Amino acid sequence: MIRARLVSVRVPVVATTRPKRPGERDGVDRIFLDPAGFDRLVAADELLEWCRIGPYRRGVPRADVRAGLAEGRPVLLPLDLAGAFAVRDAVPQARLVLLAPPAYRAEPAVAAAFAHAVAHDRTERAAAELVGLLGSPFLAPARPPPSG
Q1: Nearest 5°: CA angle at 75, between 94 and 109?
Q2: Range of the domain at 60
Q3: What pLDDT digit, counting tens, does each position of 111-131 carry?
Q4: Which of 32, 43, 69, 132 is the most exposed place for a label (fewest CB within 10 A)?
Q5: How many domains does the chain fold into?
């Protein structure tokens, strides 16, 4: 829904160790890896963040995020709170937006990590607010630090 309204937004392709589902395409829907391949990405610090979900792992490749930011495009990472904090640790200048249920009241430490909060009361309204933020200077893409 977000990409349909704001074509400049980049959503990185997530790497995963789970099996491919019918209709999914490797490198398009997900990057499907065996556990050893995923371990290599972790060891090489090529994932911005990663986590275990049941028996599988998933992670966001740094290269895809850096490419979007280098192009001046906003990058949308659908993450849980642990993933958002991992991104905050890895990229302190990242501008995080919390998408939360309407009655959710974030603890002060959680709220402080996010530049903005969007209440997910109605999908259309929340998507419109998020698109407005992504397309505004408020969330202009942070440039990645030069690699050295």
Answers
A1: 35
A2: 2-139
A3: 999 999 999 999 999 999 999
A4: 43
A5: 1
